[in-house]
Design goal:
Rossmann fold, D-amino Acid Aminotransferase, Chain A, domain 1, 3 domains, 13 helices, homodimer, ligase (chains A, B), Dna Ligase, domain 1, four-stranded parallel sheet, 360 residues, N5-carboxyaminoimidazole ribonucleotide synthase (chains A, B), ATP-binding (chains A, B), PurK_C (chains A, B), globular, nine-stranded antiparallel sheet
Chain lengths: 360, 360
C-alpha cells in the first residue's frame, strides 16, 4: 500500500518508520528542499496548493493523510476528488480554526475556558470586559508551539493587540487556573472502533512541549475518553487524534485537538505495544487497530534547538534517541528522547539525566 | 553519520529503520534492482566486486558494514583502504569458511561436532570412515538457509556426493544428536565492551529458521556467553555477532557464527530494550551500547515464500508485522512477525495464532 503524506517533517518521518514494516511505501508533498521525511520515501517538492503536484501525488498513492492541520481546505477538497483522504476535510476544517473547535466542544457538552470570537479591536475590548483578565488572545488559525498568541494580564496589554496579532480573526480565551496539562491520544478506525492511550502529563516552556509522562491509572482517564469519544464520533473521525486538556479543580477543560499524530504521543514508539504512528496508519489503511497498552513506564523529552551529542544521549540507560535529521535552529523541535523503565522511580531518575544533558 | 552497507536486503532495511532515529543516513551497495533496503537510503546498484562503485560508496560514508558474510575478501580489503570497515576483514574471512570457523572453535576450546576438511571424494570417503554416519556434508563457503549441504545417512548417500555439491571445498560434520538449537546474539563495542541477549530457542524446517523464542534464565546462558566471548575477543570483533549452538547432553556444541545481525535476533526490535540492529550500529559507530534486556516474553516467526494478508497478521493481539517489501517466492524470507507478551502462556497462544495463519 502506498501512502501519501501532506507535509514531510518529523511526523511524516516517524509515520514512514512505523509504516515501512507494514509493507507500506510513502510519498511526501512538502515545499521544503530539506524535508526530513524525504529520506524514507519519495519527495514531491511543491507548495501545498500546487494542483499539478497534488494530482501527481494522488495518482501515485492509495490514500492521503496529513502531518499538520493547517492544510488549505482547497487542497483537501482537490485531493478528495481522486483519492481517499483521512482524516476528513470536515475534521481538518474544525481543527484548524479555534472558534469552530471550541464551538464544537461547547455543543458536545465538553467544558472549555470561556471564549469569544474576535474580529476587531472593539470585539476584543468587549470580550475582555465580559470574560475578564487574565486572558489569552490567539489567532483562530495557523498557531502552533505558542506562536500566534498573546497573554493579556493588564488593561494595557489589551491596547492595540488585535493589530499586533495581524488583524486576523482571533479567539479570546479566559485564563484557566489549571493545575496540570494532560493530553489523550486516541485512534479511531474506519469502522468506528476507538482506542485510547493512557493520559499523558505535559510540561510546556515558552509554549513548546518539553516533557510528556505517560500516566498509570489516572483518575480522569475515563472522563477524558468520554470527551474525546464524543468528538471522534461527531467528526466520524479516522486516524489518530490528540486532545489537550487543562486539569482544573479535579476536572478537565478542553484546550485543543490536533487531527494527527502528536508530540505528546511520541513516547508510544517504545512505551506502548503499538505506537500512535502505526495505529494512525492502521486506521487510515482500514486495518485492525493495535494495542494502546503501555509497556512499563514511559516519558518523552523534546530536544529543542539542538540535539545533545548522540554519544551522551544513548549512554543513558533505557534512553531511545529520535533525531529528526533537521538543521538545528533556536526554538525548533529537532529531536526527542523516549525513556522506558519498569518502574516510575527509575523513570524519574532517567528523566533527570536527560534534563541535565539538555540544560548543559 | 553516514553508514555504508554492503547488501540491501531485509537486514539492511532493518538497520536503516533502527539507525535513522539515531540521525544516521544510509547507502546500500547491492546489484539487485529491487533491493528492499533501497526505500530507506541511497542505492548504489553494482556488483560487490565493482571497485568504481565501492570507491563511490567509500567516499560518501563514514564507515562500512555488511548484511551478509559472503562478501569477497577483495571487496573488504579494497574498502578498508578508504574507510573503516566493521566487522573486520579477518572476522569475515573466518566466518565465511566453515573450516576456518570450526578450526577456530576447536583452538578456543569450544566443543564442536567432529569435522573434516574435504577436497575430494577420496577425502570424503576417508572422513566418513573416521567420523561415521549419519553426517552432513557442507560447502565450506556460500551456504545459507540449508543450501549447499547434504545429509548423509547411508553409504549409498556418500557415493558421488562431492561432485554433487559442485566439487568445491567442503566440510564433513558428524551428526549431532541434539535436543535443541539455540543461538546467542552478542554485540561488542570498539572498546571491547560486550553485551549478550538472552539465548534464543530456534526451530528450523528444511534448513530455514521458522520460529525463535527468547528464553528466560536459560541454564546454558553463562556457558554460551563464555564461548561467544572467546570468539569475539579472538577476532577483536566490532558489531553484532550471532552464534548458533546445538544443545547436546545438557551442554553446547558450536554450529556456526554469523558476523552480522541475525534472523534469530529479530525479536529484539520489540522484545528487547535496544534491538540488535541499533546495537550493531552503536557498536560500529563507536557509540555506547544499549541494553540487551528483554521486555516481557518474545518470539519471532518467519514468513517464508509469502506474507499472510496484512489485516490478518495485525489482527492478532501484540503481533508486530515486519514486511520486507520483497517479491514473494517459494523458500524466500519475505517477512516476519514479532510477538511480545507479558507472560509465556499468552505468548504461546499468540504463536499458535500466527502459525495458523502461516499454514492456511
Amino acid at each position: 500500500m502506498k501512502i501519501g503524506v501532506i507535509g514531510g517533517g518529523q511526523l511524516g518521518r516517524m509515520l514512514a518508520l512505523a509504516g515501512t514494516p507494514l509493507g507500506m511505501d510513502f510519498a511526501f508533498l512538502d515545499p521544503a528542499p530539506d524535508a526530513c521525511a524525504a529520506a524514507l520515501g519519495k519527495h514531491l517538492r511543491a507548495d501545498y496548493g500546487d494542483q499539478e503536484h497534488l494530482r501527481q501525488l494522488a495518482d501515485q498513492v492509495d490514500l492521503v493523510t496529513f502531518e499538520f492541520e493547517s492544510v488549505p481546505a482547497e487542497t483537501v477538497a482537490f485531493l478528495s476528488q481522486f483519492v481517499p483522504v483521512y482524516p476528513s476535510a470536515e475534521a481538518l476544517r474544525i481543527a484548524r480554526d479555534r472558534l469552530f473547535e471550541k464551538s464544537m466542544f461547547r455543543d458536545l457538552g465538553i467544558p472549555t475556558p470561556a471564549f469569544a470570537d474576535i474580529l476587531s479591536q472593539a470585539d476584543l475590548d468587549a470580550a475582555v470586559a465580559s470574560i475578564g483578565l487574565p486572558a489569552v488572545l490567539k489567532t483562530r488559525t495557523l498557531g502552533y508551539d505558542g506562536k500566534g498568541q498573546k497573554v493579556l494580564r493588564t488593561p494595557e496589554d489589551v491596547v492595540g493587540t488585535f493589530a499586533e496579532l495581524g488583524s486576523v480573526p482571533c479567539l479570546l480565551e479566559g485564563f484557566v487556573p489549571f493545575t496540570g496539562e494532560v493530553s489523550l491520544v486516541a485512534v479511531r478506525a474506519r469502522d468506528g472502533e476507538t482506542r485510547f492511550y493512557p493520559l499523558v502529563h505535559n510540561t510546556h516552556e515558552s509554549g513548546i512541549l518539553r516533557l510528556s509522562v505517560a500516566s498509570e491509572g489516572h483518575p480522569l482517564q475515563s472522563l477524558a475518553e468520554d470527551y474525546v469519544g464524543r468528538v471522534l464520533k461527531q467528526l466520524d473521525y479516522v486516524g489518530v487524534m490528540a486532545f489537550e486538556f487543562f486539569e482544573v479543580d479535579g476536572g478537565l477543560k478542553a484546550n485543543e485537538i490536533a487531527p494527527r499524530v502528536h508530540n505528546s504521543g511520541h513516547w508510544t514508539i517504545e512505551g506502548a505495544e503499538c505506537s500512535q504512528f502505526e495505529n494512525h496508519l492502521r486506521a487510515v489503511a482500514g486495518l485492525p487497530l493495535g494495542s494502546t497498552a503501555k509497556v512499563g513506564q514511559s516519558a518523552m523529552l523534546n530536544f529543542i534547538g539542538e540535539v545533545p551529542a548522540v554519544e551522551q544521549v544513548v549512554a543513558i540507560d533505557d534512553c531511545h534517541l529520535h533525531h529528526y535529521g533537521k538543521a538545528f535552529k533556536a526554538g525548533r523541535k529537532v529531536g526527542h528522547a523516549t525513556l522506558r523503565s519498569n518502574d516510575m522511580a527509575t523513570l524519574k531518575a532517567r528523566i533527570a539525566e536527560v534534563e541535565a544533558l539538555i540544560s548543559n
